[in-house]
Specification:
Blueprint: H1 6-23, H2 29-45, H3 50-57, E1 69-70, H4 72-75, E2 77-84, H5 86-106, H6 109-112, E3 115-118, E4 124-129, H7 135-143, E5 160-165, E6 168-173, H8 175-199, E7 206-210, E8 214-220, H9 225-232, E9 238-247, E10 258-262, E11 270-274, E12 279-280, E13 284-291, E14 297-303, H10 305-317, E15 323-327, E16 330-333, E17 345-348, H11 354-366, E18 373-381, H12 383-412, H13 414-437, E19 440-441, H14 443-472, H15 477-509, H16 513-547
Parallel strand pairs: 1-19
Antiparallel strand pairs: 2-8, 2-18, 3-4, 4-6, 5-6, 7-8, 9-11, 9-12, 9-15, 10-11, 13-14, 14-17, 15-16
Helix pairs in contact: 1-13, 2-3, 12-13, 12-14, 13-14, 13-16, 14-15, 14-16, 15-16
Amino acid sequence: MLQIPLWKRVVIIGLCVIGLGMAAPNLFYNRVEGHNDALRTLERSGALSDAQAAAKAAWPDWLPSGLVNLGLDLRGGAHLLAEVHLDEVYKARMDALWPEARKALAAERATIGSIRRVPSPGGELRIQIGNAEQIAAAVAAVKALATPVVTLTGVGQNDIEVTGQGDTLTIRLSEAEQAATDDRTMQQSLEIVRRRVDAAGTREPTIMRQGSDRILIEVPGIGSAAELKSLIGTTAKLTFHQVVGRSSNPDQPAGTGNEILPDANTQGIYYILDQVPVVSGDELTDARPETDQNGYPAVGFRFNPTGARAFGDFTQNHIGEPFAIVLDGKVISAPVIQSHIAGGSGIITGHFTSQEATDLALLLRAGALPAGMTFLEERTIGPELGADSIAAGRVAAAVGFVAVVALIIASYGLFGVFATVALVVNIGLIFGVMSMIGSTLTLPGIAGIVLTMGTAVDANVLIFERIREELRTAKGPARAIELGFEKAMSAIVDANVTTFITGVILFVLGAGPVRGFAVTLIIGILTSVFTAIYVTRLMVSAWFSWRRPKTIVL
């Protein structure tokens, strides 16, 4: 029967109302965006300026406030492609393993003789022993430090490989542990970059892994690529080291296990430091801008329990000695330990401006990157280009809409009007769904919406042509309409399922602009099937119940 149950009518109308309601804020884009920005500022700082308070009040809190986020090509912004230095993590692992290996070998000193670390590539740890004949015993002692790799692919393997040749032990990460370390490093880098960008209040950045060691970063609305690089920081790695000595010669030999680093504030001053840090920035739980005892800008910090214990033990055992606070390979402060610092909190002093102290606190609070990054590609896209793209997209959408509507109405008359209303609802639903899921609209995404305008009425064309065929068999109009919808269903489903599969493949395998096109295509397929089958049928059913025509001209 052509009649649609009441519950189904309520569901169809309800879904349309919800979808169009979620899309409505996009008609007041600037006002809603200002309201959302004010809410984010309120969450971060707990206070608003007068202008921000006015922006918040410009849109009622009880109304939907989700927006379709504009992509980099529409809003303008910065694009970076960064390569993560994974080999730095291997070196850090080997440096951290040296004290444990030395302790394990020291227990066998009577057998193996003297122990000395010798120069080696960054991803290896080489240890020379005094008695080459006992190399097997030394290998066994160090192998006892190995732990199983905690990954599905690394089951049954240990994290380190230990080999011995002559009087030298060679320790390196196993292949399984290297793969697991690479994955952890990339995930940590992604999360830290995301936290740093989010902490600055930017809108809907795109931060994703590309390949084995690269990160794509796109931030709409930011001024330039240089500003984005400054926000992210290449390493922002904070460590605390024991000071071995001080020098004015950068080429002075530092000694085994030591390194020489410059003073960040005074040119010509260099510090010789123990390479292995006492505590690292990874163990920080909080960092905030403060002032020192002289009223100058400084950064206060607090460690987690593990870092607090290590920091407290070190300060207790080295009272009267200097220790170095190192940031990005430079000594920013080298105070003398005056007393035992318990509780895991302290302050970083230096020649900071207020802005520098605030920026440093933000970087440290967001976390330290596990490895350095090199920016392979950087682009700045101006907002003018984005405005031109939006204008071109509007023209393309308007031309496409008018052409489709003119053709469908010319071909099917009143039924073409029904299809046009369904098309308008369909476009509204696309924006509603994108607003609900926080999707980003790009220029290829606009192309996907324009394409959807054509494919959306395709289902209506199939239905209307089926109705025409049924009318030719001398069936009544009610039966012809009912059969038209029923018999066109299989063709509609087949055509849209194949297109949907293509869209999913584009989304999974594609990146950047391809994904933007795929998102709108997938959403458009789902909404167009809904509007063509259910919304159009509801309008035709309501019209037929009201007019009760004896014949239909189609």
